[in-house]
Amino acid sequence: MSAIIKIRPLGFPWETNDPFLFCAYHEDQYPKGNGKLGPEASLNGRNIGQDFTLKDGWRMYHGSKIPGFPAHPHRGFETVTIAQHGLVDHSDSLGAAGRFGNGDVQWMTAGKGVQHSEMFPLLKTEEENPLLLFQIWLNLPREKKMVEPYFKMLWNEDIPIIKLTDENQKVIEITLVAGTLNNHIAPEPAPNSWAANPENEILISTIKIDANAKYTFPKASLGINRSIYFFKGTEIMGEESTIPVNHEIVLNANQEFTIKNGDTTAHLLLLQGKPINEPVVKHGPFVMNSQIEIREAIQEYQQTEFGGWPWPGYDHVHDKRKGRFALYPDGTEIIK
């Protein structure tokens, strides 16, 4: 049996399979900062508030002065935000906050409802502020849809980096965000996550492969969904296929799959997990099991705003002098 089920081009956002909902990939070559955490560059010609066009190598997204995503609600799923490069300022309706990046991961369970903002502060004023970020939406099963919201930080210092070599001593570097691989265990996810049960075989990792290196993905159980997202490089070879960059490879996870990289370093994202196999009804920032539940979510948000917004502005950012930190709803603050 072939390991490859299908190969498809990457769009925006990236398509995923159950238990994942989608993956948003953001890469922006932000310019020098203006000292107020925004870009030292003209915003003329941009559709401010809806700037998703890659102009001069970067976008403002929904931000007006600082790039990012001002306050917006979620219910019924989780976000796993991998900030490979650059910084993210988090604020939410629980009073929690944080600044993370350059390898850190934030794991947030929206549960019964939360508002949060994700802004991209441009702290550097003497050099550019590149950003590379994945935000993965991971579904919650029906029994967990309405749990209390929760967030935690997976600091880069605590995330395993597995370095392997192939038969020609070429290096494969795997950053293990969730799951278990080669006897390495990722930090614990949020407690109500589908990923919290090892039987669900959730695996989230980024993979960097030397030019001309080979790597074999180990087998998972029958019925596990697995996708590889090839987002940087030139081409990789797998089985009888030559796969160009910016493509997803959907795999039979219970089959070994070997890739041989081309002539430049390749960068991949791996998403794997047991499907939840429940109805999925999406409406913007809400993901439930029925249209009735979606209507209830909209109505409750209109009435309560999921606790309101305790920050001075919907595009709230933290003091430019502040480093990486996490402030939790109970007042506990961790400074890195």
TrEMBL record:
Record-annotated Pirin N-terminal domain positions: 52-138
Leader peptide range in chain numbering: none
Gene3D superfamilies xref list: Jelly Rolls (2.60.120.10)
Q: Which residues form the Pirin C-terminal domain?
A: 207-307
> Pfam families given for it?
Pirin, Pirin_C
**CDD domains from the UniProt entry:** cupin_pirin_C, cupin_pirin_N
Family indicated by similarity: Belongs to the pirin family.
UniProt-recorded name of the protein: Pirin
